[in-house]
Amino acid sequence: MYKVLIFAGTVEGRTLAEHLGGHGYEVHVCVATEYGESLLPRDTGLFISHERLSREQMEAKMEALGDVLVVDATHPYAAEVTENIRSACEHTGKTYIRLLRGTQQVDENDCVRVDSVSGAVEYLRQTTGNIFLTTGSKELAAFTRIENFRERIYARVLSLPKVVEACSKLGVEGKHLICMQGPFSRELNAAMMRQFDAKYLVTKDTGAAGGFLEKYEAARDVGAVTVIIGRPLAEEGVSLEACEELVQRLLQENGAPAGVENLPREIALVGIGMGSGDTMTVEAREFCRQADVLIGAARMLESVQLPDKPRFDAYKPQEIHDFVQSHPEYRRIAILLSGDVGFYSGARKLLEVFDEELTVFPGIASPVYFCDKLHIAWEDVCLSSVHGRKNNLVGLIRRNAKVFALVGDRGGISELCQKLCGYGMNDVRVHIGERLSYPDEKIVSGAPADFSGYETDSLSVVLLENPAPDPVVTPGIPDAEFLRDKVPMTKEEIREICMCKLRLTENAVVYDIGGGTGSVSIEAARLAVRGTVYSIEKNPAAAELMRENKVKFAADNLEIIEGRAPESLRDLPAPTHAFLGGTSGNLREIMELLYEKNPRLRVVITAITLETVAEAVQYFRDSRRFDEPDIAQIFAAKGRAAGSYHLMMGQNPVYIISSTGKGEEI
Predict the structure, then answer these.
(1) Among residues 407, 430, 433, which one has the least CA distance to residue 420?
(2) Which residues pair with 511 in a beta bridge?
(3) Are 290 and 414 in the same domain?
(4) 120 phi and psi angles, rounded to 5 deg
(5) What share of the chain is helix, strand, coil (3-state, %, to 5)?
(6) How far, in Å, CA of 642 to CA of 647, rounded?
(7) What is the pLDDT of residues 593-602, one digit of tens each?
(8) Residues 577 and 435 in one domain
């Protein structure tokens, strides 16, 4: 059994033909019209004919093909054709498989079911109001029995000259004849029905691939009655997914030389948009339609709405990779990702685990969709996420006029709003979007206090508008701004030089050892806005004062650790930068631990006494683990008013020692 003969009068039949042809099998396809032939691709090695065959001609074709497997994928309403194919297979002894289009469940209160076209006509003759006819041109003649059909009927048919001519002869023409090729969305169907003021929609139960649900839901949207013509036969058969597997298994069992492993394979990362399916790009949806298998988390698979496709529920990159490698029969593979593949997506890790090149289809990202819904421009929005990760949203809000964040925790927005209230940021405007693009989409706006204790859906986003962001990106908080009491503090001029010497990055992890009032810690937290600062302070009074300064400056990414160094450092995450302003005689031990945590650490040490300077220089000389240290002595004087004059008051000279570890990156 080396060949397959498919009678392909449906989308499923064409999909099966493309699938088998793309896998290297010899596939012969029979369609009834030239138009049906035009819908099939020309580059997959298919043998296509568009002749209408009688039962005898079908038998002759089967005999001529020899050892052939026959698949009946004709329309569920083509009862006579199906009977001819089945009979021809029985007479020629060929294996017959019926590919069935599944039916869909609807609310029976919204529709009227009839068993035939004539039944639909008889029902509609007892009604008034316009009729949107979507059953095609073949049965149009029967509906001309309806009184005033020329005024009542609006028929949607294929845009073929022969079809237009036939409809015109029946008296259905002009604005009452809509010549279009599907598929049609729910919104387009509804728009047409509103345009025609249709009170009835007539359709066949054509299943998902035939757009039945989109027509039924559109009729519900406009308050029209759906008249459903039942299928003429109660058939047994298999779904598209089962048919693909069955045919390939039968072909392989009988020695069909598919050569699957040697055929080219295309793997694509497909961004599906928000999740409803309507926010996918046409390009992405078309690839999914043609794919041999869909891979993704359950929500992604459900959103694509291609139930007859083989699917694999997975989201872990290695699990997906292993599945793909263990199924060489799948040559066109769609890996589904939410939103856009470039916005907090699993695409990066998938690109790492796959050795072969992957195609990428972008989707509509949630910040774009949400901002458009709010009528807010998004080109200047700071993008972030707290979905499964730690992020300093408060710091981003303080710095930016607009911040967008993905939120995965139901209580995440409530916790954020409580923080904003605690930091006195009550003038921030909060916009929350839940289940974006789904029918139960919800968007609410308000002040932080409005959402304290607010629980969101797990699929939520937030946009925060700060009317007075802090645009300063350099260190330089005046000393007078800090709450100080009697706690020692690194003075402003020295502090700013130290910040420059540290060479902080936006996502730095900083240790401030000997935090004092927290002046260095807070400067660092404002600069490393996406990072974390750990301030270690042994004096409880100083630690308490630092907490007050943390609230005053909304330094949410500052963690205050009460204790002594190096003991309090051992369980902290590895630092990228460290500032040593007070070591209590433990400089060497602290430096050894810091290097152990990160051999490429950037470190800055300040010293007032010569003994501390000597200890630091000696450590760098002995350890040889760091670059030659940069040593600077800084003298600063500050002006002070004295009557009508100003005097310059000198401060203690400070040594600033800085260096970088020589080891490998952590």
Answers:
(1) 430
(2) 534, 578
(3) no
(4) -65, -40
(5) 35, 25, 40
(6) 7
(7) 999 999 999 9
(8) no
